[in-house]
Amino acid sequence: MKICRIKGVDFSINNWFIALIGVYFVAGVLDKGLVAFVVVLMHELSHALVARRLNFEVSSVELLPFGGVARMSNKLPLEPQKEIKVAAAGPLTNLALVFVAIGFGHYGLWHDVLGAFFIQCNIILFLFNLLPGLPLDGGRVLRAYLARRMSLPVATCRMAMLGQLWGILIIALGTVGVLYHVNGLDLVATGFFVFYAARSEKLEAPYLYAQYLMAKQNELIRRECLPGEILVVLDTVAAWKVTRMFAPQRYHFIYLVNREGSYVGTLDEREVVQAVLRCGTDVSLGQVKKDLSG
């Protein structure tokens, strides 16, 4: 449900969050529901503001029980350092709000019930988003870190799978908690959402892969110079396997050898990418070299 538009960014509430606020209303603690809403809103606003400050487009923000989803430019994951800053902004904002609330408490600007709940919400959101797995902020930070050492699509798939595992674990723990009256169904619902959101991230990895390959050439043109890296590969290896090893911010050269270890030839990253687009992902690197040699 759309709630407002701020500086070109649409803000909406996910149905799960609306249901959670409804539970607070039925339980007679709607004021706590509104506190939770404000905490989540501040979390997502920080993501959006940092992204805009780093010149990334932010089209919309959807508020969820565990945080939210800020739909940003698909170029953000291609710049790991900046993605770390955007992802870390949310949890750090929650941590800062905890200290601000404690400070207000020292000056008597405090509500015994809502003040404590405000701190509790921020601490939970802070810790929850530290979990290493997509779509959580911890997963985005770890993906950006891994993307320096492996291809972005591979890092995305790994973090998405980890996010699915966290979703399953949350569902299991939440179900046990419901049976023993430790927590409500909201924790189980959050687990389901994390699982399916992580699944969506995994399904989008191939599209991210295509953007990733195309963006590398633009990055080289823009910066005019990139660090290089040499990969030694058998000439029988399919092109798609080596492209999965291409890391952001580096330009790769492929040193081809046959099974006897003899030198076959050299390819650069651009030639491999163009061969994939022209001949398909299964073409061997040896065949690519033969085609180029004419």
Distance between the termini: 59 Å
> What is the residue-mean pLDDT, rounded to a whole number?
85
Helix content: 55-70%
Q: What structural class do the secondary elements suggest?
A: alpha/beta
- Number of DSSP E strands: 7
Number of helices: 11
C-alpha Rg, in Å? Answer: 23 Å
Q: What would the principal axes of the Cα set say about the shape? A: elongated
Q: How large a portion of the residues is in β-strands, by DSSP E?
A: 5-15%
| String of helices and strands | EEHHEEHHHHHHEHEEHH
As residue ranges, the low-confidence spans are: none
* Strands side by side in the biggest sheet: 1-2-3-4
User: Tell me about the biggest sheet?
Assistant: 4 strands, mixed
Structure description:
- With 294 residues, this protein is α/β, with parallel strands linked by helices.
- The strands form two sheets. It has a four-stranded mixed sheet. Strands 5-6-7 form a three-stranded mixed sheet.
- The longest helix is centred in the middle third of the chain and has 28 residues.
- The model has no long low-confidence stretch (mean pLDDT 85).
